[in-house]
């Protein structure tokens, strides 16, 4: 089986689990907007990272004990996409080939659907009754730190400010820290040692950087129809990217180096195979 | 000392404590926007409710053990104001007599400042090292439930939808549940019994409803200059309010009834005096 298909199988498992936790509230417009964006698809890479990082450090993890926590990372990812697509932000009309949330439900409901999904993630995590309170607090701490002002939100703010030129800061904060948080959380859930959690953290940062640099590259050379979204928008907006700074060839080399670092970090874990394959896969994507 | 001045003194204590936790991040535009809105003033009623609810059930509470948690409720309140004021939502240019966040920093940074404050609240709470993990999880659960899709976010969504006509649902969810959550959290922090927490919960719901109905009334009869914000906007927008549904006199009676219910709920707690005075104060406000 190709790794691409293994990933698809895992994403389809996540989609089934997601159904159990999709929020349902009043007013129904809010519910519909959240569901619309959650069900728009995607690779579900964050929940997969939580589960696979746990499996990398411990053989007999019971995924059912923390599936709610894994799914919550997808709530947060979806909130970030909804807000990023808003007219005041990246102003995107299409996401995964479908109209963006605000295009369908209006800006106000889209803002609230994002706020709602972010808050709901913490509600779902704090509702978990199977894990110790110590683990839950640690998970919430890692997650809120890395998706907040010292992570994703800070990275997104830097990304939209025209005078902010540090592209590594942007990629690290906007993308890599959240992916890294998912890896760390998997470690915490599987009773990893501090040393193992640090390895997972570094692995996550490096695949995150590789992922985002590769996205920059695909944005420059990819096929818009295959991608299901507008490409070349970085160039259109005069954004600084890795290819614009270093050229295509050097950018590819930097992404490859990140993948090497990521693999080296975790190769001593008990079962690192999946994470190693994932790291390699990131820089083989074609759209 | 008049109760109004007692409240001012407590708000000034909260303002001093807030300084210790004001977030500071890169990019500085994001930091500045969060600080601007946090320092725009306000009654700080939510942190006060956390602290006073704890004191109502237990004589020797150590406020320093949970001041971070109390302050976090103000982060969440401030995020909700920033997002509510956005052009796509209530479209307000002034808040407490000052230009709103998006007027000063632009819409994109305002959206992110809100997202950042919301996430930072959970980071600060999960950073607390003085309380048991069990208490922290309970606090996060109560808070996220009541400010999310089953509370404040749901209420705000209902409020902006022109076809949503249930004003009690809106007030209950948009305002009362968050205030009630603060009271419950105070109880949890002070080791209240389940019964005491239920009393605090009901107290909070009732003062919340009274507060919002009174705001409806003041929006109709208040003085715009004194209030430091645009009034009569409910009428301008053809929003359903208590006065528009029941008339002024009956609305005042409903608010008074809520205050009576609130007082009755908590009069058997160990030290209910402050909470009783606060309930009465809510329907004596003049702007």
UniProtKB/TrEMBL annotation, chains A, B:
Q: Could you tell me the superkingdom of the organism this chain comes from? A: Bacteria
Q: Set out the biological process GO terms recorded for this chain's protein.
A: terpenoid biosynthetic process
A single Pfam family, by name? Answer: polyprenyl_synt
Cofactor requirements of the protein: Mg(2+)
Keyword Transcription regulation in annotation? no
Where does it sit, as one GO cellular component term?
cytoplasm
Annotated GO MF terms: (2E,6E)-farnesyl diphosphate synthase activity; metal ion binding
Q: Which PROSITE patterns match?
A: POLYPRENYL_SYNTHASE_1 (PS00723), POLYPRENYL_SYNTHASE_2 (PS00444)
EC number(s) on record? 2.5.1.10
Keywords, A to Z, come to: Isoprene biosynthesis, Magnesium, Metal-binding, Transferase
Any keyword NAD?
no
* Family as reported in the entry's similarity comment: Belongs to the FPP/GGPP synthase family.
What name appears for this protein in its UniProt entry? Geranyltranstransferase
């Amino acid at each position: 089986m190709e790794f691409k298909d293994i990933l698809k199988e895992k994403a389809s498992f996540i989609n089934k689990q997601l159904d159990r936790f999709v929020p349902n509230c009043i007013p129904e417009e809010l519910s519909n907007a959240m569901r619309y964006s959650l069900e728009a698809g995607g690779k579900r890479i964050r929940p997969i990272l939580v589960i696979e990082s746990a499996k990398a450090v411990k053989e007999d993890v019971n995924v059912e004990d923390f599936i709610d926590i894994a799914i919550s990372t997808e709530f947060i990812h979806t909130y970030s996409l909804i807000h990023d697509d808003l007219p005041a932000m990246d102003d995107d009309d299409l996401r995964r080939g479908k109209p963006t949330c605000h295009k369908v439900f209006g800006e106000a409901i889209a803002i609230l659907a994002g706020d709602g999904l972010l808050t709901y993630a913490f509600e779902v995590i704090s509702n978990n009754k199977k894990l110790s309170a110590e683990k839950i607090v640690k998970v919430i701490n890692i997650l809120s730190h890395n998706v907040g002002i010292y992570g994703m939100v800070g990275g997104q703010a830097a990304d939209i400010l025209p005078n902010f030129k540090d592209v590594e800061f942007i990629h690290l904060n906007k993308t890599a820290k959240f992916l890294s948080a998912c890896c760390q959380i998997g470690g915490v859930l599987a009773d990893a040692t501090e040393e193992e959690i640090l390895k997972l953290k570094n692995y996550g940062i490096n695949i995150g950087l590789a992922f985002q640099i590769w996205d920059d590259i695909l944005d420059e050379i990819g096929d818009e129809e295959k991608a299901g979204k507008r490409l070349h928008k970085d160039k259109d907006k005069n954004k600084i990217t890795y290819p614009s700074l270093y050229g295509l060839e050097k950018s590819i080399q930097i992404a490859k180096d990140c993948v090497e670092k990521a693999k080296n970090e975790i190769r001593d874990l008990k079962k690192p195979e999946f994470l190693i394959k994932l790291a390699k896969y990131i820089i083989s994507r074609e759209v």
